[in-house]
Predict the structure.
Amino acid sequence: MGENKRRMLAGEWYLPDDPELARDTERRVRLCAAYNAAATAAPGERYKLLAELLGEVDESVRVRPPFHCDFGYNIGIGAGTFVNFGAVFLDTGRITVGADVQIGPNVQLLTPTHELDAARRREGWEKALPVTIGDNVWLGGGVIVCPGVTIGADTVVGAGAVVTRDLPGGVLAVGNPARLVRELS
């Protein structure tokens, strides 16, 4: 494994303009294109493509195309989870989605972050902070989950919310930035 990929996987600053990461991107482009084109294929065939693309996925997971990601191998999705149309999972860092999660259309789970220092940003430095979604979470349509965020089990995030900080389990959060509205019973 090359230095930039090692750094990326370790959550350290790395340069994404790297031949090894370019090959990983080519793999993802091929597999995402095949998966997105297989919308009418038999469920078993779609699962085979998804299992090849993602790091961990249960056969009971349903992901409606189009689905887009950075690499795929940094994504784990638990049993019974449903991902609606237009999901974008930028997985330069680890994305963990629990079991029985409901993900609305056009949801974005984002792990990459860029340098605040302008010179280093121009040089292309970035790193990734993991995103973790607990079991039985519901992310409404258009939700954006920012790098480094964990959402606890049984939480509901309202449509269009931008989650910039961790959310505990069993709450309703809405808005930009997402704020707790109330506990759920």
